[in-house]
From TrEMBL:
Keywords from the UniProt entry: Calcium, Disulfide bond, Glycoprotein, Hydrolase, Metal-binding, Signal
GO cellular component terms, semicolon-separated: extracellular space
The protein's required cofactors: Ca(2+)
Glycan attachment points: 266, 320
The organism's taxonomic lineage, starting at the top: Eukaryota, Metazoa, Chordata, Craniata, Vertebrata
Entry-linked SUPFAM superfamilies: Calcium-dependent phosphotriesterase
Cofactor binding description: Binds 2 calcium ions per subunit.
Gene3D superfamilies: TolB, C-terminal domain
Signal peptide: 1-21
The protein's assembly and partners: Homotrimer.
UniProt protein name: Paraoxonase
Species assigned in the record: Rousettus aegyptiacus (Egyptian fruit bat)
Entry's EC annotation: 3.1.1.2
Known role: Capable of hydrolyzing lactones and a number of aromatic carboxylic acid esters.
Amino acid sequence: MGKLVVPTLLGAALALIVAFGRQKLNASREVEPVEPGNCQLIEGIENGSEDIDVLPSGLAFISSGLKYPGMPSFAPDKPGQIFLMDLNKPNPHVQELSISNGFDKASFNPHGISTFIDEDHNVYLYVVNHPHMESTLEIFKFDEQQRSLVHLKTIEHELLKSVNDILVLGPEQFYATRDHYFTKSCLMLLEMLIDLRWTYVLYYSPKEVKVVARGFNSPNGITISPDKKYIYVADVADKNIHVMKIHDNRDLTLLKVIQLDTSVDNLTVDPDTGDVLAGCHPNVMKLILYNPKDPPQSEVLRIQDILSEKPRINTVYANNGSILQASSVAFAYKRKLLIGTIFDKALYCEL
């Protein structure tokens, strides 16, 4: 009798994990289509546009070609790229930025990106890189005349593991999110399902590197309020956004959590309104068990008055995957909207 009990208990436990996993991954959710206006796919981007950052001048940087454990890649043997797009032009096109010699371009695997402008108006692009599935932080100087990136420095640290996104605060000063403790795709999924919460947000500077926030299942995108007083962090596994206050020593205090019904990837702030835009995955099961005949969906949310007691949440864009698969980010600039994806195309809309 005892020999039968153990398999029965294991089977029951497995069934509970599967049922819980399907709920956590929104396995049955389907989106209704929403299109904000005149939208068209961006010619030249075919293998992902995972993160986007736009300068006040309207120049948009787009990271492309991410290879990530457990995610499909449409060009697994092709190095990653950084594209530039001028949103001030009436029919903007993308241009790949060349990268200076001395940088290992063959293993370039860009993920989250963030820009910084110094007092002399020099533009720097910080890129989360996963060469050989490791995590480094690459600092580039943008040469606008040559439309190129000059590699300045690679940052490595024992706390910079499984880095997803980055938010630059100053020269070599940034917040970064660690989305997983493990690096193997099967263990990464299990870690999310059993809710280990061994991940964090860290602060890095030349003088100090420290963990400043914990309590996440899988922290992903990170951005900052227009007044630089608050940080917003997306937890893709818990389907929520953490709103945190920044202290003078760069520590973070949690103020509230905004719960959603979709898995939030990257976050940006509309420079004109202060609204938060979230690139989301409505059904993560379709993302993990990729099927081109039933592709992962796309969804973009706009969150207004995020610091208030009752933020207003609206769907800006939604598609069943027939046009855009696996949306990861959205950036608004002067009534124009860019929507990026983990491994697919990118969309440009005029609002």
